[in-house]
Amino acid sequence: MANVSVYNMEGKEVGKMDLNDAVFGVKINEHLVHMAVVAHLANRRQGTQKAKTRAEVSGGGKKPWRQKGTGHARQGSTRAPQWTGGGVVFAPAPREYTIRLNKKEKRAALKSALTSRVQDNKFIVVDELKLDEVKTKKFKAVMDNLKVSKALVVVGQDSDNVALSARNIPTVKTAYVNTINVYDILKYNTVVATRAAVANIEEVYA
What we know:
Layout: E1 3-7, E2 13-18, H1 21-24, H2 30-43, H3 103-119, E3 123-126, H4 136-145, E4 151-155, H5 160-166, E5 172-176, H6 182-187, E6 190-194, H7 195-205
Parallel strand pairs: 1-3, 3-6, 4-5, 4-6
Antiparallel strand pairs: 1-2
């Protein structure tokens, strides 16, 4: 069972915490992690790009000149791709990019990602994260105390001030337990979670 230090908002160690091996000590499945990242990025695509082919642009119904005898190369339409105003070759069309993983695969990938952060000593537990006002400067001070710059901060549902204080910091993202995903865990160098959030994660995913 992994044992991690617990810090306060001043960056001082205030205790230890055991992590549930069913969530933070699983065998890492790199293939599932890769699939989860690919699915996440694919599902963010709108798939609304569109360009017209030669069949869809207007005009070009008449052959511009006769086939032979003009000295020009033969042409059948002024809407062919080589003409100005012509259609696009292999034009993109709206399509669905969604990739679906089943629930078991999603959970296994998430556990693998969390385990990798624990093994790399990139998982920091904070006793609590509470701010009495929305203030980016105060949140930045907490991150500096923890010696963290690029981080995914996992908080409880009652941490709106923390989430609002962090939104102007481009290298920090806050997330609630029910919104964490494999892509964000791997994108940010460090995962910072409150003690309550860790307990919630273990309750949901164990």
